[in-house]
Amino acid sequence: MKKLSLIYISVLVIALISSCTEEYYLYNDEARLQFGPDISRIYRPSAKMEDTTKNSTFYYYPESRQTDTVYFDLYAIGGVADQDRAFKLIQEPVPGADNAEAGVHYKRFDDPSLSSYYTIKAGEVHCKVPVIMLRDISLKSKTVTLKLQVAQNENFKIGEASNIWRKVYFTDRLIKPDLWDTRLGLGVYSNVKHKFIIDATGQRWDNEFCNLVSANFAELGYWKGVVKIALLEYNANNPSNPLRDENGDLVVIP
Known about the structure:
Distance between the termini: 49 Å
Strand content: 15-25%
Shape: elongated
Helix content: 25-40%
Largest sheet: 4 strands, mixed
Radius of gyration: 22 Å
Number of helices: 5
């Protein structure tokens, strides 16, 4: 019985490794391209669809800051080459969304200044793809969506259909941090709550800060305590007008 269990476990491990490897290196017939998780997590099945979407805002920056950049991990399937290989990205409009405009909200993917970045270098199969966002005045009143997608060119065909796209939401207003729902434990998101937390703690509570604080349970607990006390004090000082969000709901910190 023990021997059968060991055989079963061995088969399962091999299957898992094969499934992970298959996503990125199985295609040997020709070069293909697709997105994936950070290279340190590429063989973790649970990380397969990480970083498919990112949120970003200019809200915390001075007006002199007119550009910002987010990065996605891109992988060449089919092995390395002995020369640099340029790849192609295109925008895929999202139905019903405020789609970002090339040259207005983001630097065009075919901009000559980006050519050296939109390249898989000789001897490599991975790169960090920069998406450069532009601080257009329209972002003061709306959040735009940019869905980027791998396109076929002379060097690459496209890879797995579920991995050939990524999406960025960006604005010049407060925006929900990426980890809000999964790691922060701050309850239902609202702009009013977010702004109150920033004012109560003196911290930015942007993606960078939230990534750091979510990794330290004690620190996160401390800041939540600060916010809870501030909310109690606010409501005690305004008994007929407790803090409500933009939807009219009472602001609650779990």
